[in-house]
């Protein structure tokens, strides 16, 4: 199952959880999608602003596996 989150802070807390395994970043023309795989759910955050997406990418936890998709 997947869950779409609206808040940046909530998403970062989800990414810092123990059961968070990896993050996939998918860039489109209009927006950037961050997908965090946890044990039960796939959490998605959609960011329209490119500057905020870059900041969010840098503030992800360092131990998390990050994969950029086309």
From TrEMBL:
Pfam families: Ribosomal_L38e. It comes from the Eukaryota. Transmembrane segments: none annotated. One of its GO terms (biological process) is protein-RNA complex assembly. Coiled coil: none annotated. The keyword Repeat does not apply. InterPro entries: Ribosomal_eL38, Ribosomal_eL38_sf. Gene3D superfamilies: 3.30.720.90. One of its GO terms (cellular component) is cytosolic large ribosomal subunit. Keywords: Ribonucleoprotein, Ribosomal protein. GO terms for molecular function: structural constituent of ribosome. PANTHER family: 60S RIBOSOMAL PROTEIN L38, LARGE RIBOSOMAL SUBUNIT PROTEIN EL38. Belongs to the eukaryotic ribosomal protein eL38 family. This is Large ribosomal subunit protein eL38. It comes from Meloidogyne javanica.
């Amino acid at each position: 199952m997947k869950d779409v989150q609206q808040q940046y802070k909530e998403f970062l807390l989800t990414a810092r959880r123990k059961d968070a395994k990896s993050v996939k970043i998918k860039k489109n023309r209009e927006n950037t999608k961050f997908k965090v795989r946890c044990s039960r759910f796939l959490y998605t955050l959609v960011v329209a602003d490119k500057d905020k997406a870059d900041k969010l990418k840098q503030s992800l936890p360092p131990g998390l596996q990050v994969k950029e998709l086309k």
